[in-house]
């Protein structure tokens, strides 16, 4: 009889330990015992916020997509990954996911660099994902072939045990786009030629995820964006030179570096009446206090019109969230007040 009692207690103890171990594991991962698994549909908008987008097809293309669902305490609930070398189809792209009910933080990573694939596959918490950095060497988006753009986003959503509505998520580009138009003022008789454009003081690395700035003071580089030799800058819109200096990582001046010294600028060399003249054209952001800050923000489109006047340049800025549609607000070749 004593032997039977001993075996019974040992089995009971083992079952109890298994129960408490499972409960502890769920608690450490942020899962409350009353939470239930729920099948949900994710509507993922590729490179836009559910509105028309004027980006190119290549700027919207997604060949790999990773979706994380994190618990409120930051631990991973579920991760899903999909890839298609020709690009994911559908906008939104629909993905199925099974998660625990409750508040969730969804993090999306698209077009991930191969250098980070193994790391991204093993992410177990939100803060490890936020700590990851990417480098310009990870991508080919500034090559003539125009490689894929990195995209990310972070969205919070409450998932109920009887959740039926799709969860809408939007990918945003993790870089900024630049465009510059150069033209002579209609009243300027000078012969003007564009010699070159160089991007100066742009970071060669960035955080993968948004809202987590990186100190880039020691990683600023310059690169030649355009070299048009003796291209002539005309005096009518038809002769306007439209250039895309490149895609840039975010750069918040004043965060880890001197504001005036390390601002990102488009250094433009023009030949005016036979003399080369260099101009540093900053990339501005208009803050809520209406002050100009020389910041480069991810998922923003910087469109500049440079009008060459008599001995001076006039620069007009149209800066917008990349997903919005804002037309040019200036007549080319005509002097207007700077924005």
TrEMBL record:
Signal peptide as annotated in the record: 1-23
Compartments, as annotated in UniProt: Cell outer membrane
InterPro entries linked: FimB/Mfa2/Mfa3 (IPR014941)
Coiled-coil intervals: none
Keywords from the UniProt entry: Cell outer membrane, Lipoprotein, Membrane, Palmitate, Signal
Highest taxon of the lineage: Bacteria
One GO location term (cellular component): cell outer membrane
Chief localisation class: membrane
Pfam families: Mfa2
Assigned protein family: Belongs to the bacteroidetes fimbrillin superfamily. FimB/Mfa2 family.
Name by which UniProt lists this protein: Major fimbrial subunit protein N-terminal domain-containing protein
């Amino acid at each position: 009889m004593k032997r039977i009692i001993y075996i019974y207690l040992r089995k009971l103890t083992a079952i109890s330990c298994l129960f408490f171990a499972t409960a502890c594991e769920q608690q450490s991962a942020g899962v409350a015992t009353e939470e239930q698994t729920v099948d949900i549909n994710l509507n993922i908008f590729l490179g836009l916020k559910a509105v028309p987008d004027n980006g190119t097809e290549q700027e919207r293309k997604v060949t790999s997509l990773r979706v994380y669902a994190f618990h409120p305490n930051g631990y991973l609930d579920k991760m899903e990954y999909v890839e298609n070398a020709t690009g994911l189809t559908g906008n939104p792209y629909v993905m199925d996911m099974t998660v625990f009910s409750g508040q969730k933080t969804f993090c999306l990573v698209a077009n991930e660099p191969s250098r980070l694939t193994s790391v991204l596959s093993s992410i177990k918490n939100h803060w490890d994902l936020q700590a990851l950095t990417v480098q310009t060497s990870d991508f080919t988006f500034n090559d003539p072939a125009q490689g894929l753009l990195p995209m990310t986003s972070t969205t919070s959503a409450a998932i109920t045990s009887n959740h039926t509505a799709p969860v809408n998520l939007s990918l945003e580009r993790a870089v900024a786009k630049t465009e510059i138009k150069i033209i002579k003022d209609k009243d300027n008789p000078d012969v003007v030629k564009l010699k070159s454009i160089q991007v100066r003081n742009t970071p060669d690395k960035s955080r993968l995820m948004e809202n987590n700035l990186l100190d880039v003071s020691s990683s600023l580089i310059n690169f030649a964006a355009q070299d048009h030799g003796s291209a002539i800058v005309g005096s009518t819109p038809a002769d306007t030179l439209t250039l895309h200096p490149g895609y840039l990582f975010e750069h918040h001046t004043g965060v880890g570096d001197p504001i005036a010294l390390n601002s990102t600028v488009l250094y433009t060399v023009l030949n005016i009446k036979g003399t080369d003249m260099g101009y540093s054209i900053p990339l501005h952001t208009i803050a809520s206090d209406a002050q100009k800050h020389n910041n480069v923000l991810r998922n923003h489109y910087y469109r500049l019109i440079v009008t060459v006047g008599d001995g001076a340049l006039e620069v007009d800025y149209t800066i917008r969230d990349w997903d919005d549609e804002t037309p040019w607000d200036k007549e080319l070749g005509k002097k207007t007040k700077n924005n």
